[in-house]
Amino acid sequence: MDTCKSCGAKIIWAKTESGKSAPFEEDPEGDHVIADGIASRVLLTIGPVQRFVSHFARCPNASRHRKKKPAG
């Protein structure tokens, strides 16, 4: 576990489906599961699983941390 530097939330870093590292936070209604450091969308689960949501969706300061896309 890590802590968001701007809002203090507990986060975990995982690779997205596109291979980029992103912060996630635990949420029982979240749409991702994390296994071996890889975040995957929840499609079907059998039994209880730990669910996560992208921290960018919740952080009040998310725009400060997003990388700007090159113009073009």
Please characterize this protein's 3D structure.
With 72 residues, the protein is mainly beta. The chain is 6% helix and 36% strand. It has one helix spanning 62-65; strands spanning 2-3, 10-15, 21-26, 32-35, 38-41, 51-54. Strands 1-2-3-6-4-5 form a six-stranded antiparallel sheet, with no helix packed on it. 14% of the residues are buried.
What is the H/E order?
EEEEEEH
Unreliably modeled segments = none
Rg, nearest Å: 13 Å
What separation lies between the terminal Cα atoms?
37 Å
Proportion in β-strands: 35-45%
Question: What's this entry about, in short?
Answer:
The chain is mostly beta strands and 72 residues long. The protein contains 1 helix and 6 strands; from the N terminus they run E-E-E-E-E-E-H. A 6-stranded antiparallel sheet has the order 1-2-3-6-4-5, with no helix packed on it.
What's the helix and strand layout?
Elements: E1 2-3, E2 10-15, E3 21-26, E4 32-35, E5 38-41, E6 51-54, H1 62-65
Antiparallel strand pairs: 1-2, 2-3, 3-6, 4-5, 4-6
Using brief descriptors, characterize the structure shown.
72 residues; mainly beta; six-stranded antiparallel sheet; 1 helix; 6 strands; globular
